[in-house]
Design a protein that fits this description.
The structure holds 2 protein chains of 2 kinds. Chain A is mostly helical. Chain A has helices at 2-29, 34-39, 46-55, 62-74, 88-123, 128-142, 145-159, 182-188, 194-232, 235-243, 247-284, 290-299, 303-331. Chain A is built from 13 helices and no strands. Chain B has 10 helices and no strands. Classes of the chains: A mainly alpha, B mainly alpha. The A-B interface holds A 11, 14-15, 18-19, 22, 26, 29-31, 138-139, 141-147, 150-151, 154, 158, 269, 272-273, 275-276, 279-280, 283, 294-295, 298-299, 301, 303, 306, 310, 313-314, 317-318, 321, 340, 342 and B 129, 132-134, 136-137, 139-145, 148-149, 151-153, 155, 225, 229, 232-233, 236-239, 249, 252, 256, 259-260, 263, 266-267, 270, 273-274, 277-278, 281-282, 285.
Chain lengths: 342, 297
């Protein structure tokens, strides 16, 4: 496990370096002056510009420039937002937790709906319920998420009036910013209306999280269906059946555990997909997260924000990927011996 | 009459024909295939057969509901939008933009991805490992985010969107080609032609490509459905097709302000996208099913 950990960590650091290289090169690719793209200071005097050039080593060779950029990033200095002229690191700290919260809730919903449905489909393989679940999965996979979000708002918020259509929490509640993850902040606060706030926040998150969860859930259905079919065809299941175990014993004690391991492996890859969907959904539901902020940065041509947003969001996804891979390796000893960590 | 062929000729259908005969046996896949062909025909001929000009509005006929509604007019079958533009014409024209351009995306990224992927399958050691890790990094960035960044570099517009989406999907093709070529290289028939003295490129071109073409096609349908969604999403966000162009996502975003008074300007383009993606996915599912049948037989 130790060598596995070290190998994965070195790969992780390499990945992060490639990402910083990518975001560094974006400074050159975006329109405008490179140093202004890196720092985000648009209204500079000649003296300030000269200072910036010196700080970012712009008059030296490209490696030294990259080094200067890297040291800025490691000090938590992402420059200023071109649109609002406030430090980007501050904006990211306030916005990223909302996205993390939304995507984790969505992932949870997708897994808790998708995996059981996939198991049911696999147990009834080639029967009517299998076909129904598969066609539903196909439909859910094909719906454009922005359209689904609009229909959900039209139906649940405007038509039935059950759930709020925008924002993270009603403005009536004043919750102090501690971690940025709304639910934790509410529980930490000592407001007398704590539980009302908690209920309000949960009604706000249900609709966007469900909209995000639809497409990943369909992928989980397929994954768990394939995994379960494979497991049920294995000889140890036949052995268990020969021993005289009942059907539910076989499924719950043997099949589900082994199938889950195969699914967990793919959760990390699905996470990137989920965050993409979350970005669009944030725009529709006015969720104060990093996805909406990034898309708005494009309208404002805020290149510094795009550059650092890419870096932070990808880091988040890759860390989740790594985390899930560790869980997988902890559960499945066979995965630790891989020569090439893929 | 004398029979010319005395001996029963043994015909081995090519892998592609085997796939087609398996594909034809599933009715749902054929239904998807007909819908797909319908969209292809519509995408090619829509500029000729649209009843009205999709960009010019008729200001006497503003926000007309679809013709099955009691206020509707049968000469505007699917109603009109806020400038009196015929929805049917706009949706038909949009087929050649959203659906037609997704073809361009697939072809561009397929060609580039297959070339790089098969070249990289021939390399070994550090070069190969480095490429693999770089691919992993790119694959872990959300595709839409990457597309958004490329659009930010190039500036909004439909041609830049197509380019961005095509670039985004290249790594997927590299990955699958690389994997498939490596797998085929281990098989005996490749060894046989290698013993005949064939060079790597000859093996690649004459032996391996015919055998992996169906897998590439199945991946291509997946990419196409994702490309339709991505083009529409970028259009919806206002980063893709610009204002007068009737791209499905852009039509939807355009109707957003009048969602309550004219819901058909929102749900019709959404249904069009859904229809195109479902048709593409059904074809892809049919190909995968046929491949599985062939493997089992």
């Amino acid at each position: 496990m130790l060598t596995f950990t070290l190998r994965r960590l070195s790969l992780f650091i390499f990945t992060l370096l490639v990402l910083t290289l990518l975001s560094f090169s974006l400074g050159f690719l975006f329109p405008g002056d490179t140093v202004i793209n890196h720092s985000g200071q648009i209204n500079t005097t000649a003296a300030e510009l000269a200072h910036l050039n010196k700080v970012y080593h712009m008059d030296e060779n490209i490696f030294s420039q990259y080094g200067a950029y890297l040291s800025h990033i490691f000090n938590g200095n992402f420059g200023q937002s071109m649109a609002s002229q406030s430090p980007i690191s501050h904006e990211i700290i306030t916005l990223l937790p909302a996205t993390i919260e939304l995507s984790l809730v969505a992932l949870l919903i997708a897994m808790s709906v998708g995996i059981p449905l996939g198991f049911i489909a696999a147990i009834n393989h080639n029967k009517a319920s299998d076909n129904v679940i598969l066609s539903l999965a196909m439909l859910g996979y094909s719906i454009p998420v922005f359209w689904l979000g609009l229909l959900a708002i039209l139906f649940f918020s405007i038509g039935l009036g059950w759930l709020p259509s925008a924002g993270q929490i009603s403005l009536l509640f004043e919750i102090e910013f501690v971690t940025g993850i709304q639910f934790i902040d509410i529980l930490l606060s000592d407001s007398p209306y704590k539980w009302q706030a908690f209920r309000d926040a949960s009604t706000h998150i249900i609709l966007p999280a469900c909209v995000i969860a639809v497409a990943p859930a369909t992928i989980f259905i397929r994954l768990s269906r394939t995994a379960m079919i494979e497991v049920l065809a294995a000889s140890y299941i036949r052995a268990a059946r020969a021993k005289g175990l009942s059907f539910s014993q076989i499924i719950f004690r043997h099949a589900i555990r082994n199938a889950l391991i195969k699914i967990i492996r793919h959760v990390g890859l699905q996470f990137a997909n989920l965050v993409t969907i979350a970005m669009v959904t944030e725009v529709i539901f006015s969720w104060p997260g990093i996805g909406r902020w990034l898309i708005e940065s494009i309208y404002h041509r805020d290149y510094t924000a795009i550059q650092s947003g890419l870096l932070v969001l990808s880091c988040f996804i890759i860390s989740m990927h790594l985390f899930i891979h560790f869980i997988y390796a902890a559960l499945n000893p066979l995965a630790r011996g891989n020569k090439y960590g893929s | 009459m004398a029979r010319d062929k005395i001996y029963l000729e043994e015909v081995f259908p090519s892998p592609f024909m085997q796939l087609w005969s398996g594909f034809r046996k599933t009715p749902v896949a054929m239904l998807g295939f007909y819908c797909f062909m319908f969209l292809v025909v519509l995408a090619i001929f829509s500029p000729i057969i649209v009843p009205y000009n999709p960009i010019d509005g008729n200001l006497d006929m503003i926000l007309l509901p679809p013709s099955w509604h009691e206020d509707g007019d049968v000469s505007y079958l699917l109603g009109t939008d806020e400038l009196g533009r015929d929805m049917l014409s706009r949706l038909m024209y949009g087929t050649s933009l959203t659906f037609g351009l997704s073809f361009v995306v697939v072809i561009v990224s397929l060609v580039i991805g297959v070339v790089i992927g098969s070249l990289s399958a021939l390399t070994k050691g550090i070069k190969s490992s480095f490429l693999n890790h770089c691919l992993d990094v790119i694959l872990s960035i959300p595709s839409l985010l990457l597309a958004i960044i490329i659009v930010a570099i190039l500036g909004p517009g439909i041609s830049n969107t197509v380019l961005a989406v095509a670039i985004v999907f290249i790594p997927q093709f590299i990955h699958i080609t690389r994997y498939a070529v490596k797998e085929e290289f281990r098989k005996d028939y490749v060894l046989a032609s290698r013993l005949d003295g064939a060079s790597n490129f000859r093996i690649l071109y004459y032996s391996i490509f015919p055998n992996i073409v169906e897998r590439l096609m199945s991946q291509a349908t997946l990419v196409q459905s994702a490309a339709i969604l991505d083009i529409a999403t970028l259009g919806f966000l206002g980063l893709g097709a610009q204002i007068p162009l009737p791209e499905w996502g852009a039509i939807l975003a355009n109707g957003l302000e009048r969602f309550y008074i004219a819901p058909w300007t929102v749900y019709l383009p959404g249904l069009a996208i859904l229809f195109a993606v479902v048709a593409t996915n059904l074809v892809g599912e049919g190909i995968r099913h046929a491949l599985k049948l062939r493997k089992e037989s």
